Amino acid sequence: MAEEKVPGYPRLNRRLAGRGPRTRSIGPLSVPLFFFTTAIIFFVIGLLVGGAALGGTFLQPGGGAGRQSPVGVTVVEKNVQFVPANITITVGQTVTWVNQDPFAHDVTFQAGFGSGGLGSQGPGQTWSYTFTQPGVYPYRCQVHSPDFTTGMVGVVIEKG
Ligand SMILES: [Cu+2]
Asked: Measured in angstroms, how far is the CA atom of residue 99 from the centroid of ligand 1?
């Protein structure tokens, strides 16, 4: 290659000589660096788009509750037990109790509300309640629990 030199200008020549190798070393490096950076950018975009799509499908079975409403929670009544017995939810969440036993249960809260009294949930029947006030809500099945601590009991903890 041609030597860049201007006679009589040693400082300029040193600068020219110093510039040469630097541009040559950056040249081959910058191409993979560009592709690497691009790959990372697309990877991040992919994560964001994929996450949004996953979130969308995950939220949809929530029962058409709208954008703000969180996914519902299900408690199964099986073998004379609430499963899970203790649940923690957030304000606005709906809990659905499903009776999977071949006999009647009920969901009766200590606070006074419930599925409608003694044995009000026949086999296969469901009952739902949307919780709007933070608190601790003990409940029982009146058929299978004498109080709110023994037998067929459960607790809903609602966080604000
Ligand atoms: Cu019961």
From this structure: 9
